[in-house]
Specification:
- The protein is 6% helix and 57% strand.
- It is mainly β.
- It has a single domain, classed as Porin.
- One of its GO terms (cellular component) is plasma membrane.
- Keywords: Cell membrane, Lipoprotein, Membrane, Palmitate, Signal.
Amino acid sequence: MKAVNLLLALAVGSMATGAVAAEKYIPSLYNFSVMYDFNPVIGKVKELTTHIISKDQGYDYKINVSLTPDGCIQSLTRTGKYAYGEAHLTKQGQQLTGTANNSPVAYALDEHCNLTGMSDKYGKTTYRTNKAGFIVETTLNDRRFSSHTYNDNGSLVRAEFYMYDGTVLPTEVTYKDEVMKPFDAEIKTLSPVGGSYYARNVCQYDKRQVPVKCSAFITETKDGVAKEREDISSTEVVYY
């Protein structure tokens, strides 16, 4: 997970909210938002476009996702200036395949288009999901890589990332108004070897609670030196 449009992709809840309580997050859209750093939205999404700018890091890129009426991702692209390059994925049978991070990648999907695994140059990743279809644990080459804990409302409150040297990177998430402002959150990560990451996200919402514009105020501290920056994202959605 990169520190761009937040661990916030990871930080949003999986429960429906507010006036659109009958709507929920599409599991495939939610899970890919975790991996590709964009904000998912609830409802029957046809197309989602996110523009992310991080002037301090030199990022300026767009992510576009298109889905079928039954919630299958048909394509996902990332274009523009980004540290890990562009991404171009399309659905082929029970896989979402193409290139990402400058190398081939293939995501395995089940019969409901939910994510089950991924193969790339680093090896094989396996995903375990809860009943709602959201990732709760990942393994990389048969070694535990991450775990995610949700509260009773379905919102993520803790994530842990397990390094090969045995260290654990814990991330805590808190919300200002979990129901009406699901993307307004604070994320804190402490490294066992020193250093920290803190992000405060503030968004503007439309009537369907789409985070149309967000500012992430980020402070990263290493060796006693704190660096601050602001990342900005905007989101547009077309529904069925």
